[in-house]
Amino acid sequence: MDLVPALEEPLQQPLKAVLGPATAKVMAEHLGLHSVGDLLHHYPRRYEERGQLTHLADLPMDEHVTVVAQVADARLHTFASPRAPRGKGQRLEVTITDGSGRLQLVFFGNGVHKPHKELLPGTRAMFSGKVSLFNRRLQLAHPAYELLRGADDEAVETWAGALIPLYPATAKLESWKIAKAIQTVLPSAQEAIDPLPQSLREGRGLLPLPEALLKIHRPHTKADIADAQARLKWDEAFVLQVALARRRHADAQLPAVPRKPAPDGLLTAFDDRLPFTLTEGQQKVSREIFDDLATDHPMHRLLQGEVGSGKTMVALRAMLAVVDAGGQAALLAPTEVLAQQHHRSVVEMMGELAEGGMLGGSEHATKVVLLTGSMGTAARRQAMLDLVTGEAGIVIGTHALIEDKVQFHDLGLVVVDEQHRFGVEQRDALRGKGKQPPHLLVMTATPIPRTVAMTVFGDLDTSVLDQLPAGRSPIASHVVPAADKPHFLSRAWERVREEVENGHQAYVVCPRIGDDVDEAADPKKSARKKSPEDEAEKRPPLAVLDVADQLAKGPLSGLRVEVLHGRMHPDDKDAVMRRFAAGETHVLVATTVIEVGVNVPNATAMVIMDADRFGVSQLHQLRGRVGRGSAPGLCLLVSEMPEASAARQRLNAVASMLDGFELSRIDLEQRREGDVLGQAQSGARTSLRVLAVIEDEEIIAQARAEATAVVEADPELTAFPGLRTALDALLDEEREQYLEKG
């Protein structure tokens, strides 16, 4: 749809390049900017004020100032330095005066050539920079300057008062070069077609798009910036919510087979043999799911649960209900370790109900099969046969389930565990295996703030489990400052020994495996160590193989220590997990492969090495692996970061708080939104440019309501050509990114 020709114009094309080829190439490769429209939507990160004009007589220290003055003299000095040992270093000192006082400017290295030619005595110019003190004299180091050739006073005032946009830049393209490029294409902003329906824009008092683009790149006042941002936030929120609303609308039109459990079937038999009662939360969420399963269009539900809140139990009951109703259920897990773990725990929970077609199986029993990429050919063939004949009611597997060769007899429900590891397309590929679209339940143990759920999972209805099952113990968490107080770390290992002596087990988690040369930090870089924070950052992260070896020979000698990481052969991983689950291993030294789903109730302690290298939500996830039985859990966060560092404050927050939803807000505030929105719509322009999903909760909620109303009234958006164009751009990018990921 060629509605925006001026904005679709490539920045680099053979006949009529908008920018120079070198600049256009860097923009495409490093910033992902290919067209005039892309460049106009590359918004400033912040704005600098040159400051009002200041007299040299009253310059404030450490502030950014702009002065108009005349060059009194300029001298070029050469000197010896570590970088230029043979006296080849250059320093240009320029003295300027405005009649009220004098000020020294200094330029070094290659930065001396241009000012040496231009700042000749008698030249009048504007200078802008930060005032510092050197040898008891005020100076500006490397100031920006603009020569005034017969300029009038008004031009001086305008230049000094301007807000300077600072853009997200790269080492190969500075912010001011991007600003120049944007000024070149800014006239095209007049041709930008507005995606917001006119009634919405006027009803909310938002600027038209061309005006917003002009004001974000060339603001005269701070109010201009605020108005432009308010408008552009609405664009991002609304277009994304329309995409999600259309997806919801399309899903609601699909037919599905209603799946109602038989009155005295598999589900009843399973519930009868449960040794405990479900929590109120589990019962409520189960009712929501069963109501959805009974309808004739597909369920699309997100099940969020705190670590250890019993999501797997809720999902299993949903799967059993579908099997009861004659269908099959598939559980898609992100890793082989997790798929094996799920398979083991489901078979254990079901007992003889999982022995369909076998001697000793119950009359209601079904078969539960595992399907992963690394299974032997014979086992794999048998699993696929059980699926296509309908012998297996439940299959648990990894991405291997998505492969074309895998066929189902009658797929009725797809459960996706840890949704943030899967894109929408993978979800759809599995759903495409049903004769009619199957019902979909997406689970995540990463608590997600409401706005993120609306932004990332906006095509799903949400259920939340925030109640822990009875008998779960609280987890005590503490930060262990290994650099400041080494004896605290010694005490941590003593605590691990005490837990083992009391019949329990422990995890030690490290950020790295340690069998790969490339993983180590660059030795050249680590040679330039500065602050303790830098040192802790520069050191390569601690590795599983090294730490396990040191512990087995040192503080944990005599205990059975094993390792687990992602590069091990799947059979070896499974064997290690089985030994740990059986209590044969005392301490498991692992990477984050144990982050989700691993359930060993006897494990009570966890020591996380280099805890500052993990995100807040990830630490909360890891911590949820302990305290799963009746004994209290202990989580020790080991870090070498200094007390005052941001990393330590983050760890203190994790240690002091067990509420995953609150922690996820902190996590989100500390990271770029793009990370959180990660594989959201499988990468659909997730790097929201001006919308902040925590701060702009209200805009997102309002945009969702407006988008739903627009799509319900006009699903094809025939009355909104501008909105369709914006949507096509968003979804094109989504498809492109998905294909790039392969």
Structure write-up:
With about 750 residues, the chain is α/β, with parallel strands linked by helices. The chain has 27 helices and 21 strands. The strands form four sheets. It has a seven-stranded parallel β-sheet with strand order 11-12-10-13-14-9-15, with helices on both faces. A six-stranded parallel β-sheet has the order 16-21-20-17-19-18, sandwiched between helices. It has a five-stranded mixed β-barrel with strand order 2-3-4-6-5.
Keywords:
742 residues, alpha/beta, 27 helices, 21 strands, 39% helix, 18% strand, globular, disordered C terminus
Task: Give a quick summary of the entry.
The chain is an alpha/beta fold and 742 residues long. Helix content is 39%, strand content 18%.
Please tally the helical runs, counting DSSP H or I stretches of 4 or more residues: 27
User: Which secondary-structure class do the elements indicate?
Assistant: alpha/beta
Strand content: 15-25%
Spatial strand arrangement across the major sheet: 11-12-10-13-14-9-15
Pick out the low-confidence regions: 517-533, 672-687, 735-742
Largest beta-sheet characterization: 7 strands, parallel
- Give the number of DSSP strands: 21
Radius of gyration: 31 Å
Intertermini distance: 27 Å
Globally, the shape reads globular
What proportion of the residues is helical, as a percent range?
25-40%
Overall residue-averaged pLDDT value: 82
